[in-house]
Design brief:
Elements lengths: L1 H30 L10 E16 L3 E6 L7 E9 L4 E7 L2 E8 L3 E14 L22 H14 L4 H12 L6 H11 L4 H11 L4 E8 L4 E4 L2 E7 L4 E4 L12 E6 L5 E4 L1 E16 H11 L3 H4 L7 H10 L2 H15 L8 H12 L1 H23 L5 H26 L12 H18 L1 H22 L2 H9 L3 H12 L7 H15 L3
Antiparallel strand pairs: 1-6, 1-13, 2-5, 2-12, 3-6, 4-5, 7-9, 7-11, 8-13, 9-10
Length: about 525
């Protein structure tokens, strides 16, 4: 008794661990690696092309372009360069990636291209790098006096660095700016860029700030200019502000290209340099993106998985991984419902054939083959043949029936019957043999019960196995097989009544309840 209880406890622990492991790995792949749980899940991938152009002067030419870095809320998938005749190098310039094109001799118009593909991943942590030391600027008079007066006013109407920046921008974006702002806007008219002026004012208030540049991601945009934004350090994080509107926070579909006030493009040996950006978007299945990202990050769960196999093997496992679903249906129908089937897992094999033939054509083909086979088998049994020879003869007859059915259906234009070849011949032969023996020993009633039960279970298995959601879950999350294994072991511990047995014993229960 004690050994039995110990064994049940160990099995219970195993079942729990299997179910939790399968569900845990599935949730990990969904929330961490990004695999979609539902079918037809797509993500937007943005392609940005930077077009650098300048006029070379006949000698050595060199162009340097700032490149975007990996960011917390953006995954840069790949990047490429197109520059005929130019050498290309990537350098690190003060923590900023830059591409450097160079050539010995160039003359006339030059066109260089850089393309990057990226996917937005909202919800990532904000950038938390520390601000660099800065020197408090001093503006020429009378701008210095106007700036100091404006800063005093803004300080009184703000509580921290973030609200200070917002209040300052609201003064500059007011419909009727005050006299101090009008005075400072005169510097913009003299050639000072507005973002640079705002950064100087924030530094004068001893607030760390910097210029950042980015692009508004819009599908189909051509020759889109880069936008200057302002980042303000609030003591813990960098807050993004739009100097044109005063709004704070990351704008939707805004891609940060560069941090810092360094030049976006530098050209040596050329004039009239310019850089323009073109943007296009496309929808790509999320599973492909998650698989690519996990492969690049060398995630062990992906590196040692079905996805590492050749495509041919993956396609095979796409079908094989559906078999446990059919097995679970068979176990439930036999153990819980109490339905009789021809062979233990024969319905699963029939359901696998239905996946290729479709349900209704498959049912017609299967019933036709088995009915004709039973008639042939009854004829052979009258000849007193040995079992092995009789079974071999049935196999040959089944093959001939398949060929005849295919040829006849092709001539009649019924293409659905051509899928008869997907039914396993050996399984059909054994089914015919088993049903014929059952017919002889138990009668046609039991044959109809087992045959009908097998077809019912095969139909239910087919309906589940052909579901797009089930197909995706089993292939994208093969770890769920551990959960299915735990459920199968759990079903194996059931010793209660079957549902059909309750129906059979119901008259006895009703008789016992009647008063004597």
């Amino acid at each position: 008794m004690r050994e039995t209880m110990k064994g049940r406890f160990q099995l219970g622990v195993m079942i729990t661990l299997l179910i939790l492991a399968g569900l845990g790995l599935t949730l990990y792949k969904h929330f961490v690696l990004g695999f979609p749980l539902l079918g037809k899940d797509t993500s937007t991938v943005w392609s940005i092309e930077a077009w650098v152009s300048f006029k070379a002067q006949g000698g050595t030419a060199q162009a340097s372009l700032t490149l975007p870095d990996q960011q917390s809320d953006v995954w840069i998938m790949d990047e490429s360069f197109a520059s005929p005749g130019y050498g290309i190098n990537q350098i690190n310039d003060g923590g900023q990636r830059r591409a450097v094109w160079s050539i010995r001799k160039a003359n006339g118009r030059q066109d260089l291209f850089y393309k990057v593909r990226l996917r937005q991943q909202p919800g990532g942590p904000t950038v938390n790098d520390q601000p660099e030391p800065f020197i408090t600027p001093v503006l020429p008079e009378p701008y210095q006096t106007a700036a100091q007066s404006l800063l005093n006013t803004v300080t009184e109407g703000s509580a921290d660095a973030s609200s200070f920046a917002g209040t300052l921008l609201s003064h500059f974006n007011a419909s009727k700016p005050d006299q101090n702002v009008n005075m400072l806007l005169g510097m913009v008219e003299e050639g000072v860029k507005a973002p640079d002026l705002l950064i100087n004012l924030l530094h004068m208030a001893n607030i760390p700030a910097r210029i950042v540049r980015g692009l508004q991601l819009e599908d189909g945009r051509r020759r889109q200019p880069i936008v200057d934004m302002i980042e303000v350090y609030d003591g813990e994080n960098w807050q993004l502000f739009d100097p044109r509107t005063g709004q704070s926070g990351n704008a939707e579909n805004f891609f940060l290209w560069q941090r810092g006030a360094k030049s976006l493009l530098d050209v040596m040996g050329g004039i009239n340099s310019d850089v323009n950006f073109s943007i296009i978007s496309q929808q790509i299945p999320t599973r492909e993106l998650a698989l690519t990202q996990a492969t690049q990050e060398q995630a062990a769960l992906i590196d040692f998985s079905i996805y590492a196999l050749p495509l041919e093997a993956q396609n095979a496992f796409k079908i094989i991984l559906l078999i446990p679903i059919g097995v679970l249906v068979v176990l439930f129908m036999r153990i819980i419902v109490g339905l009789r089937t021809s062979g233990t897992f024969m319905p699963v094999l029939i359901a696998m054939a239905f996946l290729q033939t479709q349900l209704l054509p498959g049912l017609v083909i299967f019933i036709s083959l088995v009915s004709i086979g039973l008639w042939i088998r009854s004829f052979l049994s009258q000849q007193n043949m040995l079992l092995v020879a009789r079974l071999g003869a049935v196999i040959i007859v089944v093959i001939l029936l398949m060929a005849a059915m295919s040829i006849l259906s092709w001539k009649l234009g019924i293409t659905q019957a051509l899928t008869v070849t997907f039914f396993p011949m050996i399984i059909l032969a054994w089914t015919i043999e088993r049903m014929s023996i059952l017919w002889e020993e138990e009668g046609p009633g039991d044959v109809l019960k087992e045959g009908g039960g097998s077809l019912l279970v095969a139909t239910l298995s087919y309906l589940l196995m052909s579901s797009r959601i089930v197909e995706q879950l089993t292939f994208n999350f093969p770890e769920l097989m551990l959960t299915l294994l735990g459920i199968v072991l759990l079903l194996g511990q059931y010793t209660g009544y079957r549902l059909l047995e309750l129906k059979r014993f119901y008259p006895l229960v009703r008789a016992a309840r009647q008063p004597r």
